[in-house]
Design brief:
The protein has 534 residues and is mainly α. It is built from 19 helices and 17 strands. The chain has a domain of 136 residues. The chain has a 3-stranded antiparallel β-sheet. One of its GO terms (molecular function) is calcium ion binding.
Length: 534
């Protein structure tokens, strides 16, 4: 038996020997035919998937238009039924499927920890297992998480959060809120939840909180104050700015306010936000780089730092994204022009480390450059990649190549920030290079290893020592986990053709424009961020 088994085994191995087929040309031809047929079958499957996806995309566009008409008429509609079908057809990568499920499980762990220990409060302190109201008690983590829950298909969790918004979210608070943080987290989160679900409770709440923010724009220049009392409407700037308004805080409301005007038909929100850009155009420098402090009375820039990091970053991001939100039409051309000017300025701030040859973006003080790049500036590669296609071929290649360069950051802490995985998501979608997915997976595994504890996720005061802080930032659920989930999802899930992300990763639907009245007119017939180690 043993001898026969050995002989049989040797006979089987001969079919793997190339010399066997060289002596038998007919069998070689047959083998070649089988190989070619298998190859054609594989690529035919890929072609069918692409063809199905194209057809589904067309059907989905038709359904979206009908849904928008029904919403304008006051009829509640459920989620587009085509979306799940689309996912079933295109999710053919088992590795990405597994990775995406791991990210979803991480979201559930973060969410369930928040529900258990900090329900209704702004943020969870996982180590002490209690909630803290970092933003005046507006349920920041809950509102920030709404669209992430919806996108991941966590329906029960989304419904529980929706009910809290409807029954318990109250903005009548004697609290001096950050106009910027409240806009990107609360207004953006509510509008995104409305766009995804069609539930009008989110739109009504978004209008309520935005109406409470509007008095901040009642200044001589129209440049808003950056803090406002939500109950009494008293607006002011923080004392440490010497009365000045902050560039990012004043220039990062346009996406949300324009979207609110589109969805309510009330132009006042858009007018307030766009007037800021009109004023900044008057003082826009030739290199497109504005100082971080702006006088709200005169509308002029104060002598201060120029940076694409904290207090400057999202202003430049929104110049590009309002152009996208506005369907890249003539009416929003000035946003694109301002952004392109600023990108030339960004290039002038870029240096390389030695000997590692990593790129970093300097800060500018007067005429000198400071070799400092904070972690917020890590959004820049994604922004550059997103904007590259708007150039001609040669310039587009230059900007995309800059976007692909590695960035080096000179900080030793990690508070679960999203900017790096945000850039990886954009770069993967726009280049198709799966290396960016692998890098994102490495980052996710590092979070799981170093930041996950029994009661949520925490940041690291020092990545070298592993010392943990006591805060699960709301943007970890709103941005970091959402971008990771999308990094491992087909590009059709929250497609760049249909959605634009605000700076808190809340996707807002791009409304088609069929007339010449500007970005604020909806199509007929239907009407960056605080946080530090704790």
């Amino acid at each position: 038996m043993a001898r026969r088994s050995s002989s049989s085994s040797s006979g089987a191995w001969r079919y793997l020997n190339p010399a066997y087929y060289l002596k038998r040309p007919k069998r070689l031809a047959l083998l070649f035919f089988v190989f070619v047929a298998a190859t054609f079958a594989f690529w035919d499957r890929q072609s069918l998937v692409r063809e199905y996806e194209s057809e589904i995309s067309k059907l989905e566009d038709d359904i979206n238009r009908l849904q928008d008409q029904l919403r304008k008429a006051g009829v509640h509609v459920d989620e587009n039924p085509i979306s799940n079908t689309r996912k079933d057809l295109v999710e053919i990568d088992p590795v990405n499927n597994e990775r995406r499920e791991k990210v979803k499980e991480a979201m559930l762990h973060a969410w369930n920890s928040y529900v258990k220990y900090a329900w209704g409060m702004d943020e969870l302190q996982p180590q002490s297992k209690n909630g803290i109201n970092s933003f005046g008690g507006l349920g920041a983590t809950l509102v920030d998480s709404l669209d992430t829950l919806h996108i991941m298909g966590l329906k029960d969790e989304f419904q529980k959060a929706r009910d809290w918004v409807a029954e318990s979210l109250d903005f009548d608070k004697d609290y001096d809120a950050s106009v910027f943080e409240t806009t990107i987290r609360v207004v953006g989160g509510l509008l995104s939840a409305y766009d995804l679900s069609g539930d009008k409770v989110f739109l009504e709440k978004a209008k309520d909180i935005t109406d409470r923010l509007l008095p901040a724009w009642e200044t001589t220049s129209g440049i808003p104050y950056n803090r406002i009392n939500l109950a009494h409407g008293r607006a002011h700037n923080p004392g440490w700015t010497n009365g000045d308004s902050i560039l990012a805080d004043s220039g990062t409301e346009q996406l949300e306010f324009i979207a609110l005007s589109q969805r309510t038909g009330d132009p006042k929100y858009q007018q307030k936000a766009e007037n800021v850009i009109t004023q900044l155009q008057k003082i826009y420098p030739s290199d497109g780089l504005l100082p971080i402090y702006i006088n709200p009375h005169s509308g002029t820039a104060s002598y201060s730092t120029i940076t694409l990091g904290a207090m400057g970053d999202s202003f430049y991001e929104y110049l590009l994204k309002v152009w996208i939100q506005g369907n890249k039409t003539e009416h929003v051309k000035h946003y694109r022009q301002m952004w392109e000017t600023s990108m030339e300025g960004l290039i002038s701030l870029t240096k390389k480390t030695t000997p590692s040859n990593y790129h970093y973006i300097c800060e500018k003080n007067g005429g000198s450059l400071s070799d400092k790049m904070d972690e917020l500036a890590c959004f820049a590669p994604g922004m550059l990649a997103l904007g590259a296609s708007g150039y001609g071929p040669e310039k587009s290649e230059q900007i995309m190549n800059l976007a692909k360069e590695d960035m080096s950051v000179g900080t030793s802490w990690n508070i679960l920030r999203p900017e790096t995985v945000e850039s990886l998501m954009y770069l993967w979608r726009l280049t198709g290079n799966k290396t960016y997915q692998d890098w994102g997976w490495d980052i996710f595994q590092a979070f799981e290893k170093n930041s996950r504890i029994e009661s949520g996720y925490v940041g690291l005061r020092d990545v070298n020592t592993g010392e943990k802080d006591n805060m699960m930032q709301s943007f970890f659920l709103a941005e970091t986990l959402k971008y990771l989930y999308l990094l491992f999802s087909p590009p059709s899930v929250i497609s760049f053709d249909e959605w634009v992300f605000n700076t808190e990763a809340h996707p807002l639907r791009i409304v088609p424009i069929h007339d010449n009245k500007g970005i604020g007119t909806p199509a007929r017939p239907f009407g960056r961020k605080q946080g530090k180690p704790e």
